[in-house]
């Protein structure tokens, strides 16, 4: 029996991991395997969903549309050999990935026979200005979508949401559009009701020359961070960042791991369980347009956040 693939695309910080986490938390008995691709040497997204999925495979250091396409196909083949087999495979792409290229790879006849691409879901940040839809990469992500999920829709007013819906529909008129507060997307829109259903093969858009736009920086430490100093550092970095995320240890909280997210200019902090053994206590990823930031600047600002036991100033 074929195993359907759900491809989750969306721009940096759109809320893809939140959507995937919601799907996994509401699997309703389905065996779901997740393939998580991140743009950087540290795959934060894979760590954030590792506890929820039947099997999480991390593909780091690039986007699966280009340098990792061989790894993706090998990963899918390995998942299909598992016993018991997954019933659904969810692929969460990097925010810098063009899904048209990934769709082209998934049309490989061997993969298609065993794991046909069922649905392409594009997650769009409803808090982002409508003008961001002019970004060529985001437009390509939308054009590939069967379903468009408007994340963070509970954070914008009705007028702004209506304008966004109209702009999305102009780019991808054939897609189903749903509000996805807290990542909630109805599973019936994403997975077939009939287990024997085989979706039609797709004709992806012609391959476009890849333009390198973003670069990623990572920073890690075994020492806890001062929250006031971290907030000050992020305030200085935020105008230059397209995205940032990380897991870290905060001063005075030895048994908790903090989750940091920056999308657009909106930063959030949350707590999760005890830190995982065998990893650096603090693991941060920063993504920016090429040439905007340097490793030296990030290292200088982040090292100033380390709690040295002195005054907790900025």
Describe the structure.
The chain has nine helices and twelve strands. It has two domains: about 5-190, P-loop containing nucleotide triphosphate hydrolases (Rossmann fold, 3-Layer(aba) Sandwich); about 215-305, CobW-like, C-terminal domain (Hypothetical Protein Yjia, Chain: A,domain 2). The protein is about 25% helix and about 25% strand. The chain has a seven-stranded parallel sheet with strand order 3-2-4-1-5-6-7, sandwiched between helices. The chain has a five-stranded antiparallel sheet with strand order 8-12-9-10-11, covered by helices on one side. Strand 6, helix 7 (about 160-170) and strand 7 form a beta-alpha-beta unit.
Record keyword descriptors for this entry.
single chain; 314 residues; alpha/beta; Rossmann fold; Hypothetical Protein Yjia, Chain: A,domain 2; 2 domains; 7-stranded parallel β-sheet; 5-stranded antiparallel β-sheet; 9 helices; globular
Please give the count of helices.
9
CATH architecture of the largest domain: 3-Layer(aba) Sandwich
Poorly predicted residue ranges: 50-54, 58-68, 310-314
User: What class do helices, strands and sheet pairing give?
Assistant: alpha/beta
CATH class of the largest domain: Alpha Beta
- Main sheet characteristics: 7 strands, parallel
Radius of gyration: 20 Å
The fraction of residues assigned to DSSP E strands is 15-25%
The fourth-level CATH homologous superfamily of the largest domain is P-loop containing nucleotide triphosphate hydrolases
CATH topology tier name of the largest domain: Rossmann fold
Mean pLDDT: 83
Shape: globular
Q: What's the helix-strand series?
A: EHEHEHEHHEHEHEEHEEEEH
Strand order of the largest sheet: 3-2-4-1-5-6-7
Helix content: 25-40%
Number of strands: 12
Q: What is the count of distinct domains?
A: 2
Q: How far apart are the first and last residues' alpha carbons, in Å?
A: 58 Å
